[in-house]
Design brief:
Number of domains: 1
Keywords: Plasmid
Order of helices and strands: EEHEEEHHH
Number of helices: 4
Helix content: 25-40%
Shape: globular
Number of strands: 5
């Protein structure tokens, strides 16, 4: 996964191999493992603002992948991004178990 700031939010990109590894833990996953995913979250509270399937540099709807596996992947992506970017507010709101360990700016 890769995370970076964009405007008032943060983006987390998930590669197909990471999705395949994630899907192996979700036996009923309907996620497309041949394409990546891109999530945009609010930097204030971690709310998901946008999600897309990414293939060959083009963005597509995640409609075909919608369901509990996509929601869990988005949650993992939010957690990763908040930790990687040291977003203490997001960690405190969405992942209080990690907020204790987060470095203070």
């Amino acid at each position: 996964m890769r995370a970076y700031m964009q405007g008032g939010g943060f983006v987390v990109e998930v590669d197909p191999d990471e999705i395949e590894a994630f899907s192996s833990r979700w036996p009923c996953s309907n996620l497309t493992v041949t394409s990546g995913k891109e999530f945009l979250f609010s930097a204030e509270n971690g709310d998901i603002l946008d999600a897309a399937t990414v293939s060959r540099g083009r963005r597509f709807s995640t409609e075909a992948d919608d369901g509990s596996a996509l929601a869990a992947l988005a949650d993992d992506a939010c957690r990763f991004g908040a930790q990687a970017l040291s977003l203490t507010d997001v960690l405190a709101i969405r992942f209080p178990d990690l907020a204790q360990a987060a470095p203070r700016p």
